Amino acid sequence: MSQVYDRVALIGLGLIASSMFWAIKRAGLAGEVTGYARSEATRDTARRIGLCDRVCDTAKEAVEGADLVVLCVPVGAMEAVAQEIAPVLKPGATVTDVGSVKRHVIQVVSPHIPKGVHFIPAHPLAGTEHSGPESGFAELFDNRWSLLVPVEGSDPHAIARLRALWEGMGANVDEMDADHHDLVLAVTSHAPHLIAYTMVGVADDLRRVTDSEVIKYSAAGFRDFTRIAASDPTMWRDVFLTNKDATLEILGRFTEELFALQRAIRTGDGEHLFDYFTRTRAIRRGIIDAGQDTDAPDFGRGKANP
Amino acid sequence: MSQVYDRVALIGLGLIASSMFWAIKRAGLAGEVTGYARSEATRDTARRIGLCDRVCDTAKEAVEGADLVVLCVPVGAMEAVAQEIAPVLKPGATVTDVGSVKRHVIQVVSPHIPKGVHFIPAHPLAGTEHSGPESGFAELFDNRWSLLVPVEGSDPHAIARLRALWEGMGANVDEMDADHHDLVLAVTSHAPHLIAYTMVGVADDLRRVTDSEVIKYSAAGFRDFTRIAASDPTMWRDVFLTNKDATLEILGRFTEELFALQRAIRTGDGEHLFDYFTRTRAIRRGIIDAGQDTDAPDFGRGKANP
After folding, report:
1. Could you tell me where in chain B the CATH 3.40.50.720 domains are found?
2. Where in the numbering of this chain does the Prephenate/arogenate dehydrogenase domain appear (chains A, B) (predicted)?
3. ipTM score of complex
4. Helix (H, G, I), strand (E, B) or coil at A275
């Protein structure tokens, strides 16, 4: 793989940025990668573990001279960072981000992007329930999708270059409109996360009654929900606040379906339940066929403990 | 490990029964294991893959002379099977089951158990999203919990023997009251399954609009729901119909919490969301500390594709 950018700046050093750094290094995609994090503790950790070729004490310092600037902060912090770095952005440089919501990021970041700088929002659909600078690894994006969400009038060459970077990091790349992205992600990610958070919260209330039984017997299905509900609270707060409409729309449909199934349980309508559960089973098959999961049974143990 | 029973009969040859057979063989816990399945195709498969020492064409034939009879059929089929085998049960034998609901099974099976035969309901908290005679493996119960739910007046020696079998198959064993079992399982398993089925159903509706996008981008959180929602439709229909009250109670609490979080999103109450998500994260830590999952990140790939 050949070099795509001379210098890349990663602003925010959490799971995604640290994985990007190791993936960029794995494939030799950039000459130098600079990094900045707001917290001094994070910068110290980054320096200790060799995360980034150069860790800077200000965002401006990290951004100066960069051909690509990647905003890897929570969605709610994007605007302040964009405003701060705007004066030092190099003409012809590209600014991108990795936020889980796209319409909101475009609305708050675009106004700060100077003329002559390209802004190409993006969203890698990859993650784990861990966060922070030590949680990243080079393989995170392998065979995962990264969505580019170009704004009107984006430069095709700048888009092609960013696509080459993501492909070099192992990802499949698609382009998508911002509103459509936010709706699809509300279904595949945002609503499922809120539902998992909710179910775990309900169990937590019950746990106070039944001591540790909910944890002890979690392998029966609940455990998968706790993994999802262990994701970073700041990131997810921002996602729900900034993708409000699509998330609430999907949750409305979810509640409607849930009420229909509850009524089937209450009235003893086994046929309705059986048909519903048969239909959902087929979707699983589609996901395996699409290469987004394996057919190996999940033994209820996770990969490190087969 | 020494032999616990001379002869064990497995009635129903799906995921749990086939895993029991391989686990019993691994540890030499029984002299002979007979098996019966209602479907001829299942019996043929069992004979082909060496599942059970002897596959019988009737439940009665499998049960005759057995010291332990394990009912491994869906909860809704338990009564008919109990009625069928009752006349041939050996005096002093133990009948147990592996159903996910216990109060209902006790209600419908107990009346058919002859005097002099022990009935000790049980429920191993283990499974995968696969079903059928070929889905079993000896390690399924290792370090998982199996709950014994003795009915009033159960013989302590018969309980101790069944406990020894489950421990010999690798499980940890606890005893629990039937109603308490059904409530705890409604939280850790039944409600999460219904919620996962619902979310996948909602996505399926949307998939008709957006083609394959929901499947393509499923790795963002939705994929874990599809795994849960791929579980056996017959088994789960029966679970919901027979653990109706506890499931509906937990779903009621779930809906209440969900509405509170939806309101927080609608009103932009970030503090409420952040606090809620921080609390649920702590539960994940408890599950890892309890040895019911590992801290290894789920790369979104499943164990067979690291």
Report:
1. 5-176
2. 6-295
3. 0.87
4. helix
CB contact under 8 A, B192 and A224: yes
Which pLDDT band, with edges at 50, 70 and 90, does A302 fall under?
very low
- Range of weakest confidence among A147-156, B106-115, B249-258, B286-295: B286-295
**Does the CB of B272 have a partner CB in chain A at under 8 Å?**
no
A304 → closest Cβ in B198, B280, B296: B296
CA distances from B190 to A214, B125, B246 (A): 13, 12, 9
Mean pLDDT of chain A: 90
- Of the residues A98, A224, A269, A277, the best mutation for testing chain B's interface (the one with the most B CB atoms within 10 Å of its CB) is A277
The model's pLDDT over A48-83, given as tens digits with 9 standing for 90+, comes to: 999 999 999 999 999 999 999 999 999 999 999 999
Instruction: Output the CA torsion sign for A268, A270, A271, A274.
Output: positive
Edge to edge, the sheet with strand B54-55 lists B54-55, B30-36, B5-11, B68-71, B94-97, B118-119
Q: Can you tell me the distance from the alpha carbon of A213 to that of A154, in angstroms, rounded to the nearest whole number?
A: 54
Strands B145-148 and B122-124: antiparallel
In the numeric block, which tokens belong to residue A100?
């889980």
Above 90 in pLDDT, residue A216? no
Residue of A18, A98, A225, A231 for testing the chain B interface, max B β-carbons within 10 Å: A225
Is the pLDDT at B304 greater than 50? The verdict is: no
* B62-116 pLDDT, tens digit each: 999 999 999 999 999 999 999 999 999 999 999 999 999 999 999 999 999 999 9
Interface of B with A in 90-119 (CB under 8 A): none
Pick the CATH number of A180-289 from 3.40.50.300, 2.60.40.10, 3.30.420.10, 1.10.3660.10: 1.10.3660.10
CATH 1.10.3660.10 range(s) for chain A read: 180-289
Count Cβ–Cβ pairs < 8 Å, chain A vs chain B.
367
Q: Does the CB of A177 have a partner CB in chain B at under 8 Å?
A: no
The model's confidence at residue B306, banded by pLDDT at 50, 70 and 90, is very low
Q: What is the largest CA-CA distance in chain B?
A: 67
Tokens matching residue B208: 């008709």
What six digits make up the tokens of B71? 């009912």
Identify the helix (H) or strand (E) that includes residue A10.
Answer: strand A5-11
The burial of B18, by beta-carbon neighbours within 10 Å (0-12 exposed, 13-18 middle, 19 or more buried), is given as buried
Q: Which residues of B touch A233 (CB under 8 A)?
A: 273-274, 277-278, 281
A206 vs A123 pLDDT, higher one? A123
| R_g of chain A computed on alpha carbons | 21
In this prediction, residue A152 has a pLDDT band, given cuts at 50, 70 and 90, of confident
CATH number of A5-176: 3.40.50.720
Residues of A in Cβ contact (< 8 Å) with B192:
199, 221-222, 224-225
Judged by CB atoms closer than 8 Å, whether chains meet at B227 and A302 is answered as no
